[in-house]
Recover the amino acids of this structure.
């Protein structure tokens, strides 16, 4: 947190407090805060007498009915606002309320253990939640919020407590955590923005906010303790900056920026369907990173040329066991059909020992343990079902296979051999089947050292800069203690990127970058200078990158890259990149912040 002292028009000192989180949905909002604190539902843990058992079961079943009624209304609102794309989130929750295993388990335990419905529900849901919360993967921690929302909804309805669904118009909602239902309901009151202490850029609330064009900042620790309802607040969902009690001139500055960004954004959006190229005419290609098939409409609207990374492990999240082959095939088919003839790059399950939610395996350091390609090779049933599903779904011949966490040549050989075996078997059974293109994620230093051999074995590579930075610098990007050391512009990172890209181009192997670095306007000219021409990024960032690229030339970018490779610190590299940006890119373009 930063504290700024200023003088207002009367000469009195004012203090504005600046907080930094993660910008998960772009945009600027100025207005009063609404502190939304969810009430904690406390259930009695008394032992029930025999005469109260059936009455308690009826209370539980009634709570399920009231929860379903609420979710049905929310689903209808979601359908009107966003179409069926996101309403399926609430359909899934409604289906859970009808889950016979859950219902029978709760009812049986009430009868056998004489516990209250609330106590049993807490214990049943906690069995699932511990698998999510114990995961070091932020994506799984975020999905835990969806389960918590269902649990809290049932507990609240057990006590017939009213759902808070409306707030005053034009507020900025601040909360410890929010559910997708909260976002949908509050959006009916023209909410200006959201700020939460938890969550991430891939959480459902972030995806919904991006679709609704509502700014949201996530991950500002203890923020709810810093303000009260009615306090003036500025939210910058692009930079992740929240300013509490801003000075008048700060408000004026952000209102001006908001107006300018709206104007420029409208101009940039017109580029969505325009060809991607540099000022000197060099073609560029932009693809989307997605987590769910529901995001495909945004892929089209953003002007992407397909999906460069589909994180297929999300199919695990709402299940206690791996998704069945038929379920996967149907899911992949829907996506491939919607995108055809554009490509769909499916990353094989990037799961880890801490993420296999049906497994009892616990590791002291999962990021350096049994995960990614290692599990797929060790548990062939998981690999076989996914590869068969992909092959059967590839009727439009636009699906490509991406292998995660590659660290050796042997791993590539094993996956390719397995894939070829399945292709042959399907052909022999009379199924038309083509060998899909196969690629490797480059996200471990070992893969960088083997990049010459790897790029001669695969059809394409995709650089995962997030993990590459984490593994190279030995910094857990989710660890707040060492988060300042996580720097994608570290000399060791940019030198590896240059090696990877130039080697792939020399070996005629297609290369793209799918990490967060690909969305950074500051990094774009450096990557162009290294020879990168394909980017797989968040759909919402594509128009912005296209507009910036039109001010760059390959020659000047190459000179910039060569200069950066000689520098010995991230600070010097960023300074050089900023100098280049100031010389070539107008300040008025969205995403350009000279003060960053």
């Amino acid at each position: 947190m930063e504290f700024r002292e200023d003088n207002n028009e009367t000469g009195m000192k004012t203090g504005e407090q600046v907080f930094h989180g993660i910008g998960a949905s772009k945009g600027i909002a100025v207005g009063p805060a609404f502190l939304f604190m969810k009430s904690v539902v406390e259930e009695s843990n008394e032992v029930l007498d025999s005469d109260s058992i059936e009455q308690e079961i009826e209370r539980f079943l009634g709570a399920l009915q009231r929860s379903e009624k609420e979710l049905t209304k929310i689903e209808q609102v979601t359908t009107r606002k966003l179409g069926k794309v996101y309403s399926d989130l609430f359909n899934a929750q409604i289906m859970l309320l009808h889950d016979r295993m859950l219902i029978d388990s709760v009812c049986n335990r009430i009868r056998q253990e004489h516990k209250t419905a609330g106590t049993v529900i807490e214990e049943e849901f906690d069995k699932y939640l511990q698998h999510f919360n114990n995961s070091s993967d932020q994506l799984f921690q975020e999905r835990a919020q969806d389960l918590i929302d269902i649990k809290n909804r049932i507990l609240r309805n057990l006590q017939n407590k009213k759902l808070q669904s409306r707030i005053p118009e034009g507020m900025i909602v601040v909360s410890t955590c929010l559910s997708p239902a909260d976002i949908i309901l509050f959006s009916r009151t023209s909410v200006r923005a959201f700020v939460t202490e938890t969550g991430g850029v891939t959480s459902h609330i972030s995806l919904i906010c991006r679709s609704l064009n509502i700014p949201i900042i996530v991950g500002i620790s203890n923020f709810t303790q810093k303000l009260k309802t009615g306090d003036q607040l500025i939210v910058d969902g692009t930079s992740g900056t929240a300013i509490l009690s801003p000075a008048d001139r700060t408000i004026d500055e952000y209102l001006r920026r908001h107006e300018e960004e709206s104007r420029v954004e409208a101009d940039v959006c017109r580029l969505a369907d325009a060809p991607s190229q540099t000022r000197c005419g060099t073609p560029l290609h932009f693809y989307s990173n997605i987590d769910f098939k529901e995001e495909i409409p945004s892929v089209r609207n953003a002007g992407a040329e397909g999906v460069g990374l589909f994180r297929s492990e999300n199919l695990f999240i709402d299940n206690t066991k791996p998704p069945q082959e038929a379920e996967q095939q149907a899911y992949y088919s829907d996506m491939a059909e919607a995108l055809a003839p554009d490509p769909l790059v499916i990353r094989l399950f990037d799961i880890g020992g801490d993420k296999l939610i049906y497994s009892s395996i616990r590791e002291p350091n999962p990021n350096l343990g049994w995960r990614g390609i290692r599990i797929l090779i060790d548990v062939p049933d998981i690999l076989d079902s996914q590869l068969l599903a992909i092959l059967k779904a590839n009727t439009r011949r636009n699906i490509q296979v991406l292998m995660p966490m590659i660290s050796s040549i042997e791993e590539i050989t094993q996956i390719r051999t397995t894939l070829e075996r399945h292709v042959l078997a399907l052909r022999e059974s009379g199924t038309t089947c083509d060998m899909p293109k196969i690629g490797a994620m480059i996200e471990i230093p070992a893969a960088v050292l083997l990049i010459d051999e790897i790029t001669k074995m695969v059809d394409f590579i995709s650089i995962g800069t997030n993990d590459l930075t984490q593994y190279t610098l030995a910094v857990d990007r989710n660890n707040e203690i060492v988060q300042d050391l996580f720097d994608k512009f570290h000399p060791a990172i940019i030198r590896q990127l240059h090696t990877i890209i130039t080697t792939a181009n020399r070996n005629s192997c297609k290369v793209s970058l799918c990490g967060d670095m690909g969305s950074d306007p500051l990094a774009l000219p450096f990557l162009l200078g290294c020879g990168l021409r394909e980017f797989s990024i968040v759909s919402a960032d594509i128009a912005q990158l296209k507009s910036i690229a039109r001010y760059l030339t390959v020659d000047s970018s190459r000179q910039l890259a060569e200069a950066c490779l000689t520098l010995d610190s991230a600070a010097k590299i960023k300074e050089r990149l900023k100098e280049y940006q100031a010389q070539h890119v107008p300040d008025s373009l969205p995403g350009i912040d000279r003060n960053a």
Observations:
- Confidence is low (pLDDT under 50) at residues 7-13, 353-358.
